[in-house]
């Protein structure tokens, strides 16, 4: 059911790759709720993914390639988006993350620091660069909303998540620091969503992902939140209903983040000990 929560709003969605990605589901939901927006991803992702299909599903949304570590590319995204959409931007989704160490299965304690720097640059500093570019160009309307997707590994240790955990911790810190600055300057809201482990193309590459997923499912009172449910939650942060929510890391994980242990998990452990 659509509520027209984003009717008349203009946005930019970074990071949609294929139908498994959360950014893809968020784009579909933004379109359903009445928004117009552009889509952006790295050139290699545009070649490997299905973003043209997504564009067609979203009223032929303009696709603008960009390396999210390049301020020149990001400034071009904002400039072209304002031209295409006919005005300043009301919402931005940052769904960008990649770790060469994870992809190459290099253990955290044996990290390649060159890879580590790429992880931080792509997965966290790109968030700062997105907002710095927007502020430089005065590209966001007052009360605009910027959201980045995170994971609880920013607060807790999940060994297979590797250096992405450090990147997510920095991502959340950037949201607080930039949210403070952008709030006073333009009433722009900046938040992160700490999502349940979600079956995506990127997430499936993390060592032990299936274990993360099933462990969280057993521990969460409401169960894991899927990509479509993440989209529903994100829409509320893009809407005018959450105008005073900023600088927050918002857990969207079925209660996993505040559950110590579940009866189901205890029973399973006891059964295995017998």
Strand order of the biggest β-sheet: 3-2-1-4-5-6-7
CATH topology: Rossmann fold
Q: Share of helix among residues?
A: 40-55%
**Spatial extent as radius of gyration:** 18 Å
Provide the CATH architecture. Answer: 3-Layer(aba) Sandwich
Tell the overall outline.
Answer: globular
Secondary structure tally, helices: 10
User: CA-to-CA gap between the ends?
Assistant: 48 Å
Largest sheet: 7 strands, parallel
Description:
It is a single chain. The protein has a single domain, classed as Rossmann fold, CATH 3.40.50.720. A seven-stranded parallel sheet has the order 3-2-1-4-5-6-7, with helices on both faces. 45% of the residues lie in helices and 15% in strands. It has 274 residues and is an alpha/beta fold. It is globular, with a radius of gyration of 18 Å.
List the helices and strands and how they pair.
Blueprint: E1 10-14, H1 22-32, E2 36-41, H2 43-48, H3 51-57, E3 63-65, H4 71-85, E4 89-94, H5 100-103, H6 113-136, E5 140-150, H7 164-186, E6 189-195, H8 209-219, H9 227-238, E7 249-252, H10 263-273
Parallel strand pairs: 1-2, 1-4, 2-3, 4-5, 5-6, 6-7
Helix pairs in contact: 1-9, 4-6, 6-7
Summarize, please.
The protein is of the alpha/beta class and 274 residues long.
Keywords:
alpha/beta; Rossmann fold; seven-stranded parallel β-sheet
């Amino acid at each position: 059911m659509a509520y027209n929560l984003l009717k008349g709003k203009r946005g930019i969605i970074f990071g949609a790759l294929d139908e498994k990605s959360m950014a893809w589901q968020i784009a579909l939901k933004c379109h359903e709720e009445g928004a117009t927006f552009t889509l952006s991803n790295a050139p290699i992702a545009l070649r490997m993914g299905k973003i043209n299909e997504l564009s067609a599903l979203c009223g032929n949304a303009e696709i603008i390639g960009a390396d999210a570590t390049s301020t020149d590319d990001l400034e071009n995204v904002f400039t072209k988006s304002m031209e295409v959409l006919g005005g300043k931007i009301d919402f931005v989704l940052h769904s960008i993350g990649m770790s060469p160490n994870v992809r190459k299965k290099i253990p955290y304690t044996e990290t390649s620091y060159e890879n580590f720097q790429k992880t931080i640059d792509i997965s966290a500093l790109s968030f700062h660069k997105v907002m710095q570019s927007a502020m430089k160009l005065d590209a966001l309307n007052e009360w605009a909303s910027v959201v980045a997707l995170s994971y609880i590994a920013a607060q807790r240790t999940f060994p297979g998540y590797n250096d992405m955990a450090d990147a997510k911790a920095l991502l959340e810190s950037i949201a607080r620091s930039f949210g403070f600055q952008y709030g006073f300057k333009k009433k722009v809201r900046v938040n992160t969503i700490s999502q349940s482990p979600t079956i995506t193309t990127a997430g499936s590459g993390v060592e032990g992902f299936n274990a993360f997923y099933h462990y969280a499912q057993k521990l969460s009172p409401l169960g894991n939140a899927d990509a479509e449910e993440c989209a529903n939650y994100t829409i509320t942060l893009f809407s005018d209903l959450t105008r005073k929510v900023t600088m927050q890391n918002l857990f969207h994980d079925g209660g996993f983040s505040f559950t110590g242990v579940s009866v189901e998990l205890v029973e399973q452990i006891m059964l295995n000990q017998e």
